[in-house]
Amino acid sequence: MFEHTNKQFDADLEAIRTLFLSMGGVVEAMVRVSMQVLAEGRADQVERVRAREKEVNQLEVGIDERIGLLIARQQPAAIDLRLLLSVSKMLTDMERCGDEAKKIAKTARRVHEAASPPVPLDGLDRMATRVTGMLRDALDAFARQDAPKATTVLRADKDVDQDWKAFRRNATERMATTQDAAAIAGIFDLVFIARSLERIGDHATNMAEQVIYMVHGADVRHTGLENAERQARGA
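RESULT FIELD:
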């Protein structure tokens, strides 16, 4: 962890890091529970996800306030300022992951409440596994300040993008074989869920890019995977 001569500053910085990691743990659990709603029809879990989304919103506001106060009071050195600015940006992405998890839970409940639930399409479970892994790896990279670890998230996002394209193609083919309006609506719901998973992957990627910036001061957004991996190595 970055060190600082001011013990109070270090304590405040550690509190921010700990709160952000806790927020990430909540969001990761929300994604898992949302997919359980789809897999098992556990409609009772939707309210659990909604409650946790409110918790995530409160954490976002609280951590951002702490960051603002710390910058104003301590005027941190450049390396510490990078960490604080990175966390501030990552907060937005983490909160949006929570929003997407809530959307998944609500849509999954609608799928199971339909008179004729759609036949599951291949790929959703794989996408869910990938994006929860990406969230976990982004948080781990942040906690360890491990820039090379962050690049594993960027690589995984390319796989998620391919999964998303394949899922859309599969859904389109399925809809072309039926004229049942209810079945088509159900497939649209599954596409909506897949889209939310793809967005969670995008947000995890944004957070991983911020880890690289936090550690090396390199902005790797929109510069390609090869450059991000080079910057992550400090090259």
